[in-house]
């Protein structure tokens, strides 16, 4: 291989590595957003249960 071919091969390898890294970052961001949604949903459900419990306690 001459120098140009080696540089091209290195360039392609770097580009692939960057694409893989960006794909992994996107995946982690999606997982984080999904986890946030679940936590938000859990909080809302807990709040609704608390309100229902308080209403049931006030009105026997």
What is the gist of this entry?
By secondary structure, the protein is mainly alpha-helical. The chain has one helix at 3-58.
Features:
mainly alpha; 60 residues; 0% strand; coiled coil; transmembrane; single chain; membrane; rod-shaped
Query: Hey, roughly how much beta strand do the residues contain?
Result: under 5%
- Tally of helical runs: 1
**Largest sheet descriptor:** none
Low-confidence stretches: none
Mean pLDDT: 94
The geometry reads as rod-shaped
Distance between the termini: 85 Å
One letter per element, helices H and strands E, the order comes to H
Give the structural class: mainly alpha
The strand count comes to: 0
Radius of gyration: 26 Å
Q: Classify the helix fraction into a percent range.
A: over 70%
Transmembrane segments: 43-59
Keywords: Coiled coil, Membrane, Transmembrane, Transmembrane helix
Coiled coil: 15-42
List strands and helices in order, with pairings.
Layout: H1 3-58
Note down, in words, how this protein is organized.
There is one protein chain. The protein is an all-alpha fold and 60 residues long. It has one helix at 3-58. It starts with a helix and ends with a helix.
């Amino acid at each position: 291989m001459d120098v140009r071919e080696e540089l091209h091969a290195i360039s392609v390898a770097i580009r692939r590595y960057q694409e893989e890294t960006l794909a992994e970052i996107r995946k982690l961001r999606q997982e984080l957003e999904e986890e946030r949604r679940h936590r938000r949903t859990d909080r809302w459900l807990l709040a609704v249960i608390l309100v229902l419990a308080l209403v049931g306690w006030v009105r026997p």
